[in-house]
Every structure is written in C-alpha cells, then in structure tokens.
Amino acid sequence: MVKIFTDCSDRTITKIDKLLEVEEGLGRNTIELDLEAEFSNLALDIIGLAVFNYDFGSVSKESPVIKAVYGTLFEAEHRSTFYIPYWKLPLARWVVPRQRKFRYDLKVINDCLDGLIRNAKDTRELRDDLMTMLIAGHETTAAVLTWAIFLLAQNPEKMRKAQAEIDSVIGRGKTTYECVKKLEYIRLIVVESLRLYPQPPLLIRRSLKSDVLPGGYNGDKDGYAIPAGTDIFISVYNLHRSPYFWDRPNDFEPERFLVEKKSEGIEGWAGFDPSRSPGAMYPNEIIADFAFLPFGGGPRKCVGDQFALMESTVALAMLLQNFDVELKGSPESVELVTGATIHTKNGLWCKLRKRHRD
C-alpha cells in the first residue's frame, strides 16, 4: 500500500518540480500554489488506485470527479444545518440552481461508480458504500495535510526538525514502510494536526434505545436521559481543545503525545498514557482514554484510520523532503470553514522553494 502512496505523491512532486523549472527560467526560485487543491487531487488518485484500482489521474489533469465530490459534500453540509428541507419540494430539484447543480454532481459521481462496479453485484448498498469511500476516503486526508502544512508554516523550527528527521531516515531515497516506522516526529505532526483540526470536527450518533448517559465532570449527578431515536452530537473539535484534557490546548505541540498526563481529579477520565497501547504506530483513543477521537471509537470507529494516517505521513514526508514551504499571506488570511470537514474558504496558498542540500 505504501507504494501507491509514494507513486501518487511522486506525481505531485514532479508537477511542482516542473512548475519550479519554469519559474527558474524566468529568474525566480519560488512558486505560489494552492496546496489544499493539490492535496485533494493527490488523495483522490490514491483512493482511486488503492480502493477501486482506477487511476483518476487528477494530479496531472483536472478531474470532474473532484468538483463533483466537493459539490456533493458542500450540499450535504448545507442540508445538515438548514432547518427547512426545501429540497424535498416537488419542483425544487429543477427550479433551485444549487439543487440542479447537486443533481449534476451526483450524476458525475454515480456514472464514475457505475463504471467501477459494472462487473460487480450492482446494488444500491454497494454503490452507497463506494460513494462513502470515495468522498470520505479522499477529502478528509486532503484536509489533514492542509492543516499540517498550515501549522508547520507557522512553526518554522518544527518544520526544520521534521525535515531533519526526513533527511536522516529517507535522505534522497524513496519512502518505504520501514521509513514510515522510523518517522516518529512526522507521525506525531499528523496526529497533532488531527487534534487541532479533527476531520470530521463533529460526530453524530443516533440512540437505538432509551438510555442514561453519565453526568460527567461537573455534570448532572443523575446523568442525562436519552430517549430512543435521539441524535447525539459530539464536538470533537471542542474535546480536542479542552483545557481539562490538554495542556496549552491551542498550541501546536506534536511532542505532547509522548508525555503522560494525569487525570488531576477529572472524574471518569483515566488520563493520557502512551503505554496503554503498546506497539501502536500512532496515538489513539485508548491512549487518551477517549479524549482524542479523530476517527471516533468503538465498533463504529472509522475503518480507514491507519490507511489515512499512513497516507498522510508518506505524502507529508515526501513534500518536505523536496521543498521548503511558507504561507503566501498571514495565518489570519486563511479563513476556516467547518462542515463535514474543516477546510479553508479560499484555499491554502503557499510559496514553495526547492530544497538544496549538500
């Protein structure tokens, strides 16, 4: 699987190299690029080859599937926050422009999926599963990489530390699975980025039967009655930035995941202990006693967590192996938009320069 990650990341590296060659011919040594868009293209190519054995080729050419996926995702976000379901009205799909576009985007994606499952069992359930993997499996990873670069660009000393580790482990060579196991700091950067910008920032669960949830820290001692059919929203974003569970919760500190943290009297929380999950390549919800939930937990935890983490590690390592990156504007100019994921409003525009090492 790592080979797919490296092969697709190589496409992105080659594309950036060619753009830099053009600029160098004009006497300039940097390019300005929307890395959020590039990460989205990269992640789509990876999910296509890894899951569908299909090459979207979106790194080298514009893919209509990318636009359709984002259009579908934004419409889902819109519907989840709009109280009146006007899209259910008989003529809405034909009259309302955004609903017409939504129908077109769905057709693009379904046509793509139809081609992938033509020789398989053609059922709605299979198509829905493929739709989930296509959308959730690429857009979330693109977001993780986007915010990892955003955070590193504001912390140049951590950027240099990451590149030093990459130079020591990979050098000028290819990234392999053995390399990933040795890239401890890069893995911690990915995880810390997920803590600060979890994908998704909100988990939604529906109770199948009536229950009583514990009151929790400073909560109702009798607990909270949850009727059957109740939708429960878990704010992962707030959980990951809670001062109850995290020291300096808004600071970017990848090393925090190596240090034990006592509960300090927080009832029902066992504290943070890296030794709880021996052999784990990445910190998880067990280590943090569920104060860290980037992929959820329990039987409905995201099944693609290790795939996404390793994919992000390889892509980030290969980018930093080859280029120095800085933000084009100020951090404040990067506006945040939340929905199914946390993404930027107008892209993550960065300046990239080829790394020259002795």
TrEMBL record:
Keywords annotated in UniProt = Heme, Iron, Metal-binding, Monooxygenase, Oxidoreductase
Q: Which domain of life is it from?
A: Eukaryota
Please give the cofactor(s) recorded in the UniProt entry for this protein: heme
| GO biological process, alphabetically ordered | isoquinoline alkaloid biosynthetic process
Family under the similarity heading:
Belongs to the cytochrome P450 family.
The protein's matches in PANTHER family, at most eight in alphabetical order, are given as: CYTOCHROME P450 97B3, CHLOROPLASTIC, CYTOCHROME P450 FAMILY 4
**Under what name is this protein listed?**
Cytochrome P450
Q: What is the lineage of its organism?
A: Eukaryota, Viridiplantae, Streptophyta, Embryophyta, Tracheophyta
